[in-house]
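Hello,

Our lab assistant flagged a job as stuck in the queue for most of the afternoon. It eventually completed. Since we weren't sure the result was trustworthy after the delay, we are filing this so someone can double-check. Below is the sequence as submitted and the structure that was eventually returned. Let us know if re-running is recommended.
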Amino acid sequence: MKPPHMNRREFLRTAATWVAASAAATSSAAPARKTATDLVPLGRTGLRLSRLGMGTGSHGGRVQAELGPQEFTRLVRYAFDRGITYFDMARNYRTFPMIADAIAGLPRERLFLLSKIGGQPERPAEVIDELLKTYRTDYLDCLLVHCQVTETWTDEQKRLMDAIDEAIEKKKVLSKGVSCHSLPALEVAAKSNWVQVNLVRINPQARHIDGPQKTVGGSGNDIRPVLEQIRIAHNNGHGVIGMKIIGNGDFTDPADREKSIRFVMSVPEVDAITIGFKSTAEIDEAIERINRALAEVSA
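-- returned structure --
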């Protein structure tokens, strides 16, 4: 309805001016600031997860398991309340039997549950069913072949990979990939058509990152080859999740944690990261550092 004392031509001119001004204001509005708890796309999987995830396997899960079930549950709930919806788990972590109680009652549709299985299980399909039963969930958002170190891992783990594919067909698993602990394994993973998600060790101090040694405990001393493989994986449509951001817990100096988080947040090919927390203060610190780093990257 046009205002009184305004003819139709004046009304249309005023309306057009208002629409143009509104469009200009909208187009000039600052983009939303990125945060640690944004839901971000994971490569071309079609899935989203919080940019920051909570790891439950620090030193094989010992760090989190030693909190005890009650405190571990409190920590998981605190992480969720802060906006962390991605939880990184594995069958061989000491926290494996603690997860179900920790996430019980949380809205499953808001969680991104990533788990891992490795070794040479005789009946891998049964192992996958065991994961679902233990976590008390109907599906996993992502399942990784765990801790690979050789350039022939796709041949060695063919039976396990086939079982994961079968689980995807049955909607027990929504996406698949691998976590690597050597550069030879990572080079294969980055080019693999089977892999959808790469879990990659990354920090600028090159602490516990992938190197040429084909052993679980091997470590490189140069982040550049790792970054090259991350770019290859990303260009192939893989989701990339960073781990060892805190140097496997070695970065006790806050300056090291700040340096690492700033660096990783500046790598555009890394979709999300996982950090193993043992206290609410560590969660708060990580969120604060990531938010600050993202603000500077976007500036």
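-- support follow-up --
The delay was a queue issue, not a problem with the job. The result is valid. The chain is about 40% helix and 15% strand. The domain at 36-298 is CATH 3.20.20.100 (TIM Barrel).
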